[in-house]
Design goal:
globular, about 900 residues, 31 strands, 5 domains, alpha+beta, single chain, nine-stranded antiparallel sheet
Length: about 900
């Protein structure tokens, strides 16, 4: 009997067999990929994702990249910037946008990479650490991917790249440390791979130095273990790492230069509120219990997460503790990995302790770290950083534990493939269920309290207005109004976030008071912008015109689409802002685009001008304070104590509350309390809208609970208008804390102010809760811009003066050229707050900037004649040199890898030929 099977059927069966083998052999990878593309479900065509601190980095990538490669930004009167280290990230953006991909789609592509990449790289780390474990890589990667709470930071570029690449970098380091061969070529190859991964990864994460420090801490933990394990051969291990780290240094020098320049070499300083104690309110959720389910994040509140209430479900809460329970279970298994697992758990616990920050218990111990370890302040909000460090270690232990459980014998029976599959599936399902919003849409953050969606459409009139401004053929600055009353602004079209998008859309130099709220600021710029804000707010037209002149402002972009009456905000309404601008005779409405008005200052002053040294001595242009001591309560007399006692209610919420004098201090004792805040109130004191009030006080506590300060405003009839949270003091028993803060009235109708010390809500401290107050001082001061001699400054800008600028060009933010005809020494003044890294060159001589006024700088040129002057920002040269070094290293390494690959391939080919001849 003949068997008739055609060739098509044979090919079909062969294809099915190979497909089956492929699917079975790569089932875990296919599963990872399938789950990794979940963020595609979050795509909303036509929208971009933006809210809070995060905005798409490149709306117009070509123009943005062109400005971002410079280490100096002309925005906000000028300052150094670190964004040049994001160059690789921006190039990727440029690539996708050049393909015609929308901004929202590019964002989702990145989220897919974040999600899938985290899984694949964790898979590789687990296989590298535990090569003998078959199930551990899949479980570790699933645990790592489906971690809801660590992904709360998914919008932060640096943190997300850290989360994705950290496991890959760890696995590459382990390969170097575990290398059993001394073969030079293999070590160099792995070293080059390690350097390339680090360069890409660290440059993306670099703007936040805490990200880099977290990476270093995690890698150092692994390094310590393997060095200790190979301590007999420590010299060999260190030699093995010498070349990789040398290559690493050369590869990374291009992005290290901008970071060092920004954080170490510029005169900018950190705002006082960046201190850990000022951020202690963000540590309030960081209890050990919350950290064990990886949710010590301060913002875990109903106004920030629409799915917040879902986690009141006890089943979900229990499921979120499973990773830590599994990790602890991994310590119970006695085998060759016991020490390594214990070591991982040790570092997990160390990072949990650091994540806790100033949260009790042991808060004072953490405070010592902040006070005595240089740079520790970068972890002012420690949960978001150290949770990242916990996650790869935790995922390794989780994968190990599940693999061990799945392979455990039941009686004398070995586990079957089915039982292993079911066990693994059960735990993977737990990870997915516990983080179910990742399956739905965790990007959307619109809530009842904050009705602003993460998905926004920027109105067309914004593109039209910014295009018009970008196309103006001059170097003048653009003032953004109304002034920001907080670092995030609400808009009627749905955006609620920082003014970062203004710098992304507008390529011209802008001046926005949002700079005041930055973490790292130039004190001179901050003072000037604060005064500019007050000038607008309190209708000081003469000062306003002076700022327009001195800061080289020509255009004013008035945002009429700001949600000015949003609850709790103090934003100048559009009609008042428009009235203020139109009443100035030197300002006219130039263009109108939808809800945006562009005003033009018709008497604009130049960016570069000549200033005579003698004239400069006749000017007194500076911000001055007129200060008056309004009140002082040091409680040395009963009268002062009784003044506070008379306005502090003794029967607040039916509790036993007493105020007495104690050692020349006011003493408030709370003897019982179940609910509600208790307040210690000062007498009302007169206040004037437009004045600033500096308030100082010493506060001490014993068993006190949640002590903080509010300022209440009252109208003419002593009716309360509002009460504003000002400062957190401390909790528990603490020594005298000296508090200083400034306050401006938010309501024009306010005539009186009152200091309120709040404490005792749902106190868990033993009674009595005691708070002492002493040395309360209130200073009222008004800041003014002294403009003496302002009319003399710009008289040399006309062509009939002895020294004249014939022409000048601002080539880029870091280089200016000018031709000057000078009959006497002069000051070349520039409308920017230059730092000492700027240098002017004239006829081979160098000049450093000198201070003029309001932080602005100039160069005293002691030469005459026709001068060609070049003004440059020196660090930009270092950046170019660093780029050349890194690029040369990359080309050399690529050539080496290509040669090595070709050589290896040739050897294998010859070996195959020899074996073929023998057979």
């Amino acid at each position: 009997m003949k068997c008739s099977i055609d060739s098509g059927t044979i090919l079909k069966y062969i294809f099915i067999i190979y497909l089956k083998r492929f699917l079975l052999g790569n089932l875990q990878i296919i599963l990872l990929f399938s789950l990794g593309i979940i963020p595609l479900l979050w795509l909303k065509q036509g929208y971009i994702i933006a809210n809070g601190d995060d905005f798409p980095f490149m709306m117009n990538p070509q123009a943005t990249l062109q400005n971002d490669v410079y280490l100096w930004s002309s925005h906000h009167i000028g300052g150094s910037q670190p964004v040049s280290s994001y160059m690789l990230y921006e190039v990727i953006w440029l690539f996708f946008r050049s393909l015609g991909t929308s901004v929202g789609t590019v964002q989702i592509i990145f989220h897919v990479f974040f999600f899938a990449g985290a899984g694949f790289f964790m898979y590789r780390l687990s296989k590298t650490i535990n090569p003998e474990k078959k199930l551990a890589p899949l479980v570790s990667s699933m645990s790592y991917m489906f971690n809801l709470f660590v992904l709360q930071t998914r919008h932060n570029v640096g943190l997300m790249w850290t989360y994705v690449f950290l496991p890959l970098l760890m696995s590459q380091l382990v390969i170097l440390l575990k290398a059993q061969t001394n073969k030079k070529s293999m070590l160099i190859k792995n070293g080059i791979y390690f350097a390339i991964i680090t360069t890409v990864f660290a440059s993306f994460a670099s703007i936040n130095v805490a990200n880099i420090t977290t990476i270093v801490l995690v890698l150092f933990a692994l390094f310590l273990y393997y060095v200790a394990k190979q301590r007999r051969h420590i010299n060999l291990v260190l030699q093995r790492l010498t070349k990789p780290f040398a290559i690493l240094a050369l590869f990374n020098i291009w992005w290290v230069i901008p970071i060092l320049n920004y954080f170490a070499l510029t005169p900018s300083s950190y705002n006082p509120y960046v201190e850990a104690t000022s951020w202690s309110w963000t540590h309030e959720r960081a209890s050990f219990l919350n950290l064990f389910w990886l949710n010590g994040f301060w913002g875990w509140r109903p106004e920030y997460f629409p799915y917040y209430n879902s986690y009141s479900n006890p089943i979900l809460i229990v499921l979120t503790f499973i990773p830590f329970i599994l990790a602890a279970t991994a310590l119970l298994f006695k085998n060759d990995k016991s020490r390594f697992n214990a070591y991982l758990m040790l570092f997990i616990l160390i990072f949990i302790f650091l994540s806790k920050g100033l949260h009790r218990p042991l808060g004072q111990l953490n405070l010592l770290l902040y006070e005595h370890i240089p740079g520790m302040t970068m972890f002012r909000e420690p949960v978001s950083k150290f949770t990242m460090a916990i996650m790869p270690f935790l995922a390794l232990l989780v994968g190990y534990a599940v693999d061990h459980i799945a392979n455990m014998k039941i009686g004398n029976n070995k586990p079957t493939r089915l039982t292993k599959t079911l066990t693994t599936t059960l735990f993977v399902a737990i990870f997915i269920i516990a983080a179910y919003p990742l399956i739905t849409n965790p990007i959307e953050t619109k809530t009842e309290q904050l009705p602003f969606s993460s998905y926004i459409k920027i109105p067309d009139y914004w593109y039209q207005a910014t295009d018009w401004l970008n196309n103006q053929q001059d170097n003048y600055k653009i003032l953004i109004t109304p002034p920001d009353d907080h670092y995030m602004m609400p808009y009627t079209w749905g955006y609620y976030g920082t003014d970062q998008y203004l710098e992304r859309l507008i390529q011209k130099p802008i001046i926005s008071t949002c700079y005041i709220y930055s973490y790292k600021t130039n004190p001179d710029i901050t003072l000037a912008l604060q005064q500019l804000q007050s000038t607008i707010k309190y209708n000081r037209t003469t000062e306003f015109k002076a700022f327009l002149d001195l800061l080289n402002i020509k255009y004013i972009l008035q945002r009429n689409d700001v949600y000015y009456n949003f609850t709790g905000r103090n934003i100048i309404p559009p009609n008042e802002m428009q009235t203020f601008l139109t009443q100035q005779p030197y300002i006219h409405l130039a263009q109108k685009f939808g809800q945006l008005d562009i005003y033009e200052y018709t008497n604009e002053k130049p960016y570069l001008y000549i200033l005579n040294a003698a004239i400069l001595q006749q000017t007194t242009i500076k911000i001055e304070n007129i200060t008056i001591l309004q009140h002082l309560w040091n409680f040395t007399s009963l009268t002062e104590m009784q003044a506070w006692q008379n306005v502090t209610q003794p029967d607040q919420l039916q509790i036993n509350y007493t105020i007495t004098q104690d050692n020349n201090a006011l003493k408030a004792e709370l003897w019982n309390s179940t609910w509600g805040w208790k307040t210690i109130d000062s007498p009302l004191f007169l206040a004037q809208y437009g004045n600033i009030y500096q308030i100082e006080a010493d506060i001490r506590g014993q068993n006190a609970h949640g002590v903080h300060i509010k300022i209440a405003e009252y109208d003419q009839n002593t009716n309360i208008l509002n009460a504003t949270y000002i400062a957190y003091i401390n909790d528990g028993t603490f020594n005298w804390a000296h508090t200083v803060f400034n306050y401006e009235l938010s309501n024009k109708a306010a005539k009186y102010l009152q200091i309120q010390i709040w404490h005792g809500h749902e106190t868990d401290k033993p009674f009595p809760n005691i708070v002492w107050i002493d040395n309360v001082q209130i200073y009222s001061y008004t800041t003014i811009l002294n403009t003496t001699g302002l009319d003399l400054i710009f008289q040399n800008t006309t062509q009939n003066q002895p020294t004249t600028i014939l022409n000048y060009t601002k080539i880029n933010p870091t280089k200016i050229t000018a031709t000057v005809n000078a009959t006497q020494p002069f000051i070349l003044a520039i409308s920017e707050a230059l730092d000492q890294s700027w240098t002017a060159y004239a006829n081979g001589k160098q000049y450093k900037p000198i201070p003029l006024y309001l932080g602005l700088k100039g160069f005293y040129i002691n030469q005459t004649g026709l001068l060609d002057i070049v003004v440059e920002y020196e660090p930009q040269k270092w950046f170019y040199i660093g780029c050349v070094i890194s690029l040369t290293t990359f080309i050399a390494c690529t050539a080496y890898l290509t040669y090595s690959y070709a050589k290896t391939k040739d050897i294998l080919q010859k070996l195959k030929q020899r074996l073929s001849k023998k057979t």
